[in-house]
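SEQUENCE-TO-STRUCTURE ENTRY
===========================

Backbone structure tokens: a row of integers, each naming the local backbone shape at its residue.

Task: work out the structure tokens from the sequence, keeping to the layout shown below.
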Amino acid sequence: MADQDSVGRALGGAKNLSGDDLSGADLSGADLTGADLSDADLSGADLNHANLKHAFLFDANLSGADLTGADLSHADLSGVNLDDADLTGANLSGADLIGANLTGADLKHADLKRADLTGATMPDGSIHK
């Protein structure tokens, strides 16, 4: 379960949340532009319509997270776990998804223009080349 201090810092605009436990947290609509969420646990978190432009999420755990309509444009999502995440309508344009796990993720209507998916495991389990 999410550390309430970490949730408060995230909602208060903190930019360094690296390694924090935000699992299951309600961060819907939060402005996390440019935030460092590397190695953070965001599993099951509600991030729908959150602004994560230019955020650093490498090696973060976003399994089962709700990222519906979230803006992840130009975010660093390399090595991130997005297993069973809902990315419906998310903006991933220009995002770095190198080596990301997207197994079972819902990418319906997601914008993946210029996203780097090299080595990513796609929703159907195939590896993107």
